[in-house]
Amino acid sequence: MEHLAELLAREVVSVGPSETVAVVARLMKEKHIGCVLVTEAGRAVGIFSERDLLNRVVCPQEDVRTAPVSRFMTPDPVTVEASEPLARVFDILSRRRFRHVPITRDGRPVGMVSLSDFSGILKEVFEEDRYAQYFVDYWTASQGRK
Questions:
Q1: Residue 146 — very low, low, confident or very high, per pLDDT cuts 50/70/90?
Q2: Is residue 74 within 8 Å of residue 47, measured between CB atoms?
Q3: Which of the four CATH numbers 3.30.450.40, 3.10.580.10, 3.40.190.10, 3.30.1340.10 does domain 10-114 have?
Q4: First to last CA, the chain
């Protein structure tokens, strides 16, 4: 797996900017996700995450029943094109200290990648390396080489 497009099996969970924080928080809980994309006319206008919920809503004691998510979202989110190499995306996540970044194709949201997605990718890579090393060792031993 080298490019972001290979991670696009998941649906994009998005809401409109006028959706209430209560509805968005419930949706995040039901879908077991850490953020939603806020879209308008098919374009990403913001991202609303667990951090936004905690720092911008819960701690200041805002009324989640009536407050629109647009008031608390992070506007103009950094996005990455689906054709981006995974290494570049991981660099963006780590340098900017993001947990999630929306994936786009021609500027339109098509997915979301999270830092936890990379833990699964790294696990696969390490397992592949371990098996590759096992076969190299086996082949070398079978050829009478050390």
A1: low
A2: yes
A3: 3.10.580.10
A4: 31
